[in-house]
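Review this:
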Amino acid sequence: MKNMQWCIYTYRHRKAFEYCVRKLIKEPALRDEMLRRARIHDMDKMIMYLFLDQKEAQEIHVKTKPHHLENQLPRTYVDYVETVIDYECAPYTKPDKPLNACDFTKLLLDRKVLDVETGEKLIAIMEKLGIANSDSYTGDAEGQAYISGLPEVTEEMIYEEILCYVNDNPDNELNKILEYKRKKERR
């Protein structure tokens, strides 16, 4: 499988993302929406990894997803919540990204990568979720045990997840991804 290591990386990240949603979001309507998003979070990357290089797949993903603040897409409150959860779950499975949401947001603000208004929105969400501190990951032994107890990820697991996504989401983004690639190749 092309990009197997990146598929494993993303598969495990998606499990951490869902764990954080279940742990942190208590308000029923927001929880339902975030669990829906957890089912599709980063699935475009999983598909793109099958036929694109990792760098190109990541670039397309960042440019087309509102939970990535590097682009100029319009955002809703729920998009910002997804951003916070994405940041918060990173240290659970990504050794190369050891900062939780609070510390990563502070770093982005210090480096002026993130504007103050957006930083304040993210911090307000973290406060509401009870994670506006530096020890939210290190103090979560239950989450660390859950992640370390996940089975070894196989190609079959990855293909099954991709097939379920495609089958359960007839309006999935595969066509958007392919169109983006075609436009890029025409330039």
